[in-house]
Amino acid sequence: MKIRISALVIILIGGLFFAVKSDLKTLPLPDRQIPETIVLAEKAMLGKVTFKHQEHISRKVEGMPEVTCVSCHHVEQPAAEAAKTEGHKTAYPADRTVTLTAANYTDGTAPEVTKCQSCHLAKGASPSILKEAPSMTVGGKTTVLNNQNALHSSCADCHEAALKVKADLKAPKGNQCMQCHKKG
Prior knowledge:
This protein is 32% helix and 9% strand. Strands 1-2-5 form a 3-stranded antiparallel sheet, with no helix packed on it. A two-stranded antiparallel sheet has the order 3-4. The N and C termini lie far apart (70 Å). The radius of gyration is 21 Å and the shape is globular. The chain is of the alpha+beta class. It has 6 helices and 5 strands, in the order αββααααββαβ.
């Protein structure tokens, strides 16, 4: 009898632990701060890119869509929302129920942000959350969206669009590599 009760207690405690442990990714992670800057392309031949994260998320350009978290962090939304966006159809995790916002990131109710390199990897590496690297076909030409291609197309497309509506912006054009890349 004592063995059966002990076994039952162990099973219940183990089940409770498993249930809590498996749900940890959705528990609040308090005191997260949105980074001021993010260093990208640390090993790039032209030098690293110090991305002014806060500046980009707080800037409003008349005639441009509002920049939201999922403008860049496109997997950080439910699959039904991701399916509506041009080019970006992936949600991570696949059963995600919340869209990343500054508010739910800082209050800890959103899951951790997925690193770009989890899908958009360095040349020759394998993605950690997808079966294969994402690719895009335009005009019959398929391009693997490695880290370099994904960042360059996202940044350049946004800068080019912003410069079309406001020509005096200080946003670098797609061919002004050293405006973003810095040695050292």
